[in-house]
Amino acid sequence: MYTIEKAIEQALDEAQRKKEQGLLTKITDDWDLLDWSKGDPETIYTIASLYAQYVEGIEFDNAADRIECVLKETYPEYV
């Protein structure tokens, strides 16, 4: 389990890794055209949901919203 701060830090790290690998994508992108051979593409929303499930003491939806807000601010081009 994570604090919300740790979950945000982990989500930011994951988003940066995915971006560097060319796997961070917009939800509007055509997933059928993405190169899946390098790994699974992610959106800021899927990353937020992934890490929100591990936050202790905060309801999942609230944690996901908080993580998503930071990801949106950091990676506005992927909204």
What's the structural blueprint in terms of helices and strands?
Blueprint: H1 4-20, H2 44-52, H3 60-74
Helix pairs in contact: 1-2, 1-3, 2-3
Describe what this molecule looks like in 3D.
The chain has helices at about 5-20, 45-50, 60-75. It has one domain (about 5-30, about 40-79). Helix 1 packs antiparallel against helix 2. With about 80 residues, it is mostly helical.
By DSSP, the count of extended strands is 0
Largest sheet report: none
SSE series: HHH
Are there runs of 5+ residues with pLDDT below 50, and where? none
How large, in whole angstroms, is the Cα Rg? 12 Å
The amount of helix comes to 40-55%
Share of β-strand residues: under 5%
Mean of the pLDDT scores? 91
Report the end-to-end length measured between terminal Cα atoms: 27 Å
Overall structural class, as computed from helix and strand content, comes to mainly alpha
Shape: elongated
Note the total helix count. 3
Number of domains: 1
Keywords summarizing the entry:
79 residues; mainly alpha; elongated
Summarize the structure.
The chain is an all-alpha fold.
